[in-house]
Amino acid sequence: MRKIFIILIAVFNSGCMDKAIEDSAPTHVPLDVMAVADAIPKYEKRTRAGNPGEYEVFGKHYKILAQSEGYKKKGVASWYGEKFHGRKTSNGEVYNMYAMTAAHKTLPIPTYVRVTNLKNKRAVVVRINDRGPFHDNRIIDLSYTAAVKLGIQQIGTGLVEVEALGFDSAKVIEKKISLLAEDLQKTVFFLQVGAFNHSANAADLQGKLTTAAIASTRVQHIKNEGNGLYKVQVGPLYSEQEAKQESEKLAQIGFTNPLLVVEKTP
Fold first, then answer.
1. Is 60 exceeded by the pLDDT of residue 21?
2. Is the pLDDT of residue 117 over 70?
3. Rounded distance, CA 64 to CA 52, Å?
4. What mean pLDDT do residues 112-125 have?
5. Residue 113 β-bridge partners
6. Which segments of the chain does DSSP mark as H helices, in order?
7. Is the whole-model pTM more than 0.70?
8. Exposed, middle or buried: residue 142 (CB in 10 Å: 0-12, 13-18, 19+)?
9. Using one digit for the tens of pLDDT, what is the confidence trace for 242-260?
10. CA distances, 91 to each of 46, 84, 115, 159 (Å)
11. CA-CA 20 to 30 A from 172: which of 40, 123, 234, 255?
């Protein structure tokens, strides 16, 4: 019984649980809430805080979902504001009504969800860090800012769709970075300084570049129905920094707008 009692205390410490206290919008808003950026889904290790296997509120039992993947549901959204600003949420964080957060009864904490107002089609992304709302017809309790951005703050509630968003695990992110690094190693750059219909003109320009101490050049012949096109390019260059340095050298000899060409090596 002691364990269950501790869990209930943790749940009821959440700001949005105590609906006996009348809530309200802030009398003074210190920022442009419409400019507040959405929450950005990212990997976060799930902790026990806010995630008891099951809990009970007002005589009703709730079971935390094992995962958020695939969650998508329509229902009524409400919001909570000034009376709970600064109180602790279910996972021990401090509720900030100007942050893009929300409360949910059963989604794991944290979970990132996209909330769409089905009336005006506005959508926001919020981070679940609290429990509630404990009303049968409501599926999510939004922060004051999220409610304003969705256009439901003045009315108090709105019909929405809540969809859980995925994020990469730490191992997946590490693998993506590794693959990106490998991919960058296979990338080379060229700076194109001219294109001609006749090979003699291209050879002449290539010679001028060599004379000007631009050592690495090539003439690329692109065949078409006619004689083709002869492109004079500086390179290969193996980084954007190297390409920038060569571009500065070209500018000194009159080639101020070379075309950057990106190629993949075999």
1. no
2. yes
3. 7
4. 94
5. 126, 164
6. 2-12, 144-150, 170-185, 199-211, 240-252
7. no
8. buried
9. 888 888 889 888 888 889 8
10. 10, 15, 21, 27
11. 123
